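Bench log. Compound arrived from synthesis this morning; before running ITC I wanted a structural hypothesis for how magnesium ion sits in the protein. Inputs:
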Amino acid sequence: MKTQVKSLSPEAVDEAADLLRSGQVVAIPTETVYGLAANAFDEAAVARIFAAKGRPQDNPLIVHIAELDALPQVAADIPPAARLLAEAFWPGPLTIVLPRQPGLAPAVSAGLATVGVRMPAHEGARQVIRAAGVPLAAPSANLSGSPSPTAADHVLADMTGRIPLILDGGQSPVGVESTVLSLAGVPTVLRPGFVTPQEIEDVLGEPVRLSPALEAPPAEDAVPESPGMKYQHYAPRARLTILSGDFDAFTDYVTLENQQRPGVFALCFEGEEKRLPVPAVAYGREGDAASQAAGLFSALRELDARGAAVAYARGPAAGGIGLAVRNRLLRAAGFREIQV
Ligand code: TXA
Ligand code: MG
């Protein structure tokens, strides 16, 4: 299959919508990361998403809508808390897990009774949903296990020959995937993102729980709260380890490591590259979690492009959006972290 890349334009949106209505898969930009979209009511189309990504069959997809009126097509029950959150954060990077509408393609929920739904803030994404006329199931548009794509080039690198069309809507400004919040029982953050637990608490007026799986890999036999938690994610080919501590301790550690085992790379903050004795890729500014979120996935891909086999990362501060940055970095590092 030939894979075309087209800049967002009314014609390209119409072409994407035609493909989606005929059961094909199209990569679309969103404000978080690029998504691999298909008609959420078409089981064969949804199966094509899983095939294109090489995604495990038990990992459910997020459904994307363009207006609130479409929510009842996706969710069978909309509790007041969901309405409050939708009003506060949609369109935007918050996914709410709700009871699923039985008409959805079963594979969307991968056997669960629930569905994750969000309204993306990216204007191009909403244009495509409207033009297609149906809610779109869309996971991140990377091969399963690779870093999520934040640019059309990243999608092309992973999806060439696998899908007919990639819509290029520029760099994804948020850079990490949406916050996933379950409203079954105590509101629980299953995946941290740009919308922070504190912001959610402020809207709901009740405490929000963080899933324990955010800081440690779930035990092998445990049933995770969110199936995506059990898979290695966002991983560059390099063996990555987080070094938490200050810049001087980081520099000492990588210097010594590189003397003993040459070929070490650093994943650092902007401005630190030239002060390190090893090749370095920056992923954002120190103390600026939003810039780190925006740069992390492309920095991980850059490490691969430069052939890094071993890399050490500066540890981000974990507050607010930093919780999401730290979560993605921990997973990219297979939870390897050393205090220096
Ligand atoms: O920002 C985003 O959310 C992007 C863009 C394209 O919208 N999408 C995305 O999808 O990141 P994906 O499939 O890469 O991640 C979806 C995550 C997975 O960890 C999955 O396990 C979880 O959400 N999830 C989806 N539906 C769920 C459900 N019903 N219950 C619990 N977790 C769910
Ligand atoms: Mg993903």
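What the model suggests: The two ends are 49 Å apart (CA to CA). Residues 289-305 form the longest helix (17 residues).
ITC booked for Thursday regardless.
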